[in-house]
Amino acid sequence: MTVLLYTLGVLFFVLAILVSIGLHELGHLVPARAFGGKVTQYFVGFGPTVWSKQVGETEYGVKAVPLGGYVKIVGMLPPGADDLAEPAGHDELGRPVHRVRKSNTGMFTQLISDARAAEWELVGPEDTDRLFYRMAWWKKVIVMAGGPTVNIAIALAIFATIFATYGNPADQRTVGTQIAEVSACVLPYDESDRACEAADPTAPAAEAGLRPGDVVTSFNGTEVTDWPQLQGLIRDNSSGAAELTWTRDGEPMSGTTDTTVQARPGTGEDVDPARLTEVGFLGVSPVVEPTTGGLVYTLGEMGEMTVQTAEALVMLPARVFDVGQAILGLEERDPESPVSVVGGGRIAGETASTDLIPGTDKLVFLFLLVAGFNFFIGALNLVPLLPLDGGHIAGALYEAGRRGVARLRRRPDPGYADVAKMLPVAYVVAGALLVMGVVLIIGDIVVPLSAFPD
After folding, report:
1. Which of 4, 289, 351, 407 has its CA 20 to 30 A from that of 96?
2. 1.10.10.10, 2.30.42.10, 3.40.250.10, 3.20.70.20: which CATH number matches 172-291?
3. Integer angstrom CA distances of residue 322 from 18, 429, 431, 435
4. What is the pTM (predicted TM-score) of this model?
5. Contact indicator for 100, 113 with CB cutoff of 8 Å
6. Would you give the distance in Å from CA 252 to the centre of its chain?
């Protein structure tokens, strides 16, 4: 049964990611067609074609490696300035037809020239008014932003639904002054995960007779109504006796401790006594539940996620390097390190098959995992570097700005932005993303992260 649940968890995650990729590409295809663009291919995956079908002018299909997808929009790269200046001929309506030279001098110019040539091999005279580079800048922005917008919309829909019903597991709130757990003893704070031993002093809460489920009503004569208030009273009572009242199953009860002891300092070598603060310790933890909220709450949480994701993207190369170090056995893998879709599938499988959490919580976690991946994919694709969608968006905005400045200065129209000149950068970025993806996949196989670490 465990193996079956694990497999179902992995399949759920993989299918959800494939659907997300497909919807991402639809986010490009639909507006491109709406604006008159010509889309010749729509594929989910990369590598060898597993299945495809021609429908009209577009070939739809699935490829063998499900790590992305693409749509082919004709005319993404404009011809070079020299080619535009000298048309190779005219079509039947008298419009100029431009061809692109297949050779040039210099490594980068050769690369750009070859890319233009490959792009324009599929362009016919009838496509002149349907080329992507000829679209208005705002249409280009909508087409290229459509994909990542779909991913972010998927994340928003999942987050909003879960936060409004189940609540946000990452934003826990206390439930009044109800007790969830009572410590049996007082442990050094850096040994809190070990069992109590005979030499460990009894926790004051256990001494007073408190049990899980009790609701504390007063502390040393002060009525308490919420956990932060109770926590403050406990912390400030580091050397005095504690008199408590509480209710258990609706019945009022009371108890006394000789003292609320100070939490003992840690015993590890890395403990810095100068940074420790001695506070009162009772030995109770509160009942908590996920905070619920509507669309405004969800948007606020996603705003914080945006900041965190931006920071993660900046640090991504360094964190992937650390994963590489872990693969080589030079250091332990950070539990907070990034994971690939392989790692995501593993975490989904472990979540689905564990007995540590109930079924509803499993389903919530799986959907949140899918939402998190969609949000990250959307944010990554908005980075303003080719070959990412954000690179094309940046090119369109640059074109709009340059033309706007020319109009204000009453200068001639500078024409379309030539994103082909950024192809060397695109190849470097693509190579870096490929290397980081491979490192993360290897890391998720060799030094995998677990959904439930020991």
Report:
1. 407
2. 2.30.42.10
3. 28, 19, 18, 14
4. 0.83
5. yes
6. 48
Q: Which helix (H) or strand (E) holds 113?
A: helix 107-120
Number of H helices, E strands in the chain: 11, 12
152 Rama sector, left if φ>0, alpha if ψ -120 to 50, beta otherwise: alpha
Q: Is 25 a catalytic residue?
A: yes
Q: Which of 383, 393, 387 lies closest to 428 in space, CA to CA?
A: 387
Ranges for all domains in the chain classified under CATH 2.30.42.10 = 172-291
| Sequence-separated (6 or more) residues with CB below 8 Å from residue 179 | 205, 210, 211, 212, 213, 214, 215, 216, 246, 284, 285, 286, 287
pLDDT at 84: 47
71-90 in b/e burial notation, b at 16+ Cβ within 10 A?
A: bbbbbbbbbbeebeeeeeee
Where do we find the tokens 């408190």? 210
Q: 391-407: per-residue pLDDT in tens?
A: 999 999 999 999 999 99
Contact between 390 and 383 under an 8 Å Cβ cutoff? The reply is yes
Q: Which of these is catalytic: 25, 207, 301, 399?
A: 25
How long a stretch of residues is the chain?
A: 454
